[in-house]
Amino acid sequence: MSCCAPDVDAALGLAASAPKGPSRDELTLSSRSLPGGLRQTDLSVPGVHCGACMTNIESALGKLDGVEQARVNLSTKRVSIRWRENAGAPPIAEALGKLGYESHLFEQDADERDETLAELIRGLGIAGFAAGNVMLLSVSVWSGAQDSTRDLFHWLSALIALPALAYSGRIFFRSAWGALRNGRTNMDVPISIGVLLAYGMSLYETANHGPHAYFDASASLLFFLLIGRTLDHVMRERARVAVKGLARLAARGATVLLPDGTSAYVPVSDIKPGTHILLSAGDRVPVDAKVLKGRSELDCAIVSGESDPVAVGSGAELRAGTLNLTGPLTIEATAAAQDSFLAEMMRLMEAAESGRGGYRRIADRASALYAPVVHLTAFLAFIGWMVAAGNWHQAITIAIAVLIITCPCALGLAVPIVQVAAARRLFENGIMVKDGSAMERLAEIDTVVFDKTGTLTLGMPRLVNASKISPEILSLAGAMALHSRHPVSRALAEAGGNASTRQWAFDSVEEIPGFGLQARLGSDIYRLGRAPWALGQEGSIGGTVLSQNGSGIAEFAFDDRPRAGAAAAVAELRKQGLAVEIVSGDRPEAVASVAATLGIEQTSAQVLPSGKVDRLTALKAQGRKVLMVGDGLNDAPALAAAHISMAPASAADIGRAAADFVFLRESLSAIPLTLATSRKANQLIRQNLVLAVVYNAIAVPIALFGYVTPLVAALAMSLSSVIVIANGLRLSAGKDSAPKPAATKGQAFPGKEAMAS
Amino acid sequence: MTNLLFLLPVALFLGGLGLAAFLWSLRSGQYDDMDGAAERILVDDD
After folding, report:
1. A714 with A589, same domain?
2. Other C-beta atoms within 10 Å of A719: how many?
3. Rounded to two decimals, what is the model's pTM?
4. Residue A391 falls within a domain, yes or no?
5. DSSP letters spanning A288-350
6. Fewer CB in a 10 Å sphere around the end CB: N or C, chain A?
7. Are residues A547 and A566 in the same domain?
8. B-chain residues within 8 Å CB-CB of A118?
9. pLDDT digits 0-9 by tens, A455-464
């Protein structure tokens, strides 16, 4: 164990809860082949956060048989392992689990490198090179280079600026052209026009031995704007990578029974209706299926929002994505993966997304006003000077000077700089922003819709009457419960672990799926489970009891545990005047009890996935802007339909993919924090836009009267950019009012999978 | 003027060298794990 033991649960000493990673079959299935008989596996290890973790993992994995090389990437919290094919997959996940690190596979399309980022950085490098060198030459001109020397310097500047324009400028020209072709304008249109005209006019001036050339303006403009754009991209990419690294909840493959009686591990996509599958306890159901043999209980929380496990026997229908808790099952697939429940959710999501309608970003709305005004001013300047002086060369020069000085460098930086600072602040608090416009949209909301199971609550029961039970009996129950992965057992094991008074050495413990646990200790038989079974009599009270030789010695009461900070977060949202409501798939009583605890009046229970979307559509029809917070498969369509959406890290894969924000820590205080940061960011963006307008109000008259020289333009543009950036950075410099839980800082909230295993 | 003819190419060459070095370091993956690199320098077992 390293300096920073990543998993508190593992440290509780629950042997059964050592972090579990992907099985060796899964590792083989997801590895890539390399030349020389090697295979490479990439795992996400969210618990890595210092150099000691890195060396621990690398040396432990390096010692495994068949491992050629193991390398940890601390920035992305991933480890990539190369192993020799002939020996089979080494027990990588087990080795990591022993060190206390949870590991999981992530989506493999991350193989392709981030081409956009590479292009942006190359463009940035070239623009930086050009801007630096052209500026040096320009300084010489400004300090008094004359005649042929000045012409030489101008020609050289033109030559150096050309690659910057052709390569780095492409990024802006492409986007501007795309917007213009669709009859819209965006921020890149005035930028492109300004840069191109500045270059064109300077070439003409240089050819005619003119004194003023703006090559430095076009190159440094591109450089500044690319800095903003690259930072923006890097920030979003970091969030995307972090979200991708979370545990997958959908099964990647399944153990299939072949007709000749043998079994094989195959990818989910190869499972056809009629295939027989062996599902052991702790596995998720890969496709919609029917039970052939066995009894067990299923955790449906992530699929339907039901908080209580459902008992199943032969003949029962299972939905893809549910978790098998207690007993092994033999099931028969009734649908292929692409026709399963998950696929139905995907179709609902696509339908919901298309109804979301285009949101226009603040920057684009601003430039829709800005571009026509600027271009009109330049045109009027041309007409005015033609009429007044009749010199067309002078008129054009002044018109272009207006365009250059108003070229929205500050405007182009105003938005990304603030959003980068805000996203960084959220990132430090474990909140990932997936979309640049997300913060703008969040600031507009007036209604918050919560899912219940897994969102407001943790979707895990908690023992509520521990104080009424003697420590001796609690520790006995806890020791027995260690042998099961049923959520109720997990809660008991945790409670029992705290009350541990002595070691219990059972002669045998067995789990009877659908009923409970039976332990033998000397001549006594203890039963922990459903009351009718444990007490050996039909029709008695429900609930969970512990019995000794058939007579009850303790009764346990459980309640779903609300997430940390849930009540405070809901109260804070209501205080800000937001309407809060619950839309859940669970039983009405369960919903009502949570609603009462948190003080939420508006609730609906037993809502189907399509019903959640209908509810959001109805709210939208009333003109409400809704934030949807949900985690389940059944919430995914609603997350896609809402104006803006958030999901916890423990959410189902497609829910995380659909949400605009993903928060990694347990506490719901992430919601008010995100809202506050987004509002602050929006306020700063507006301030920046106002600053840009003020700058123009001062600079444009100077340009109109023909006083703008390249030196004035360079000074004015840099000054306005610096002001805008400094204002944007106030966000991260501001006092961090959010409470930072020291123990969980920088640590991902363990996924549901980890807690249930 | 004559020393300019000599100095300008030198300046441009040096600038170009910097750009080339940057692009090379980018391509060889030196920016892939900034946090890891900062820690690895403190590890002295290999």
Report:
1. no
2. 13
3. 0.77
4. yes
5. SEEEEE--EEEE-HHHH---S-EEE-TT-EE-TT-EE-SS-EEEEE-S-GGGSHHHHHHHHHH
6. N
7. no
8. 26
9. 888 877 778 7
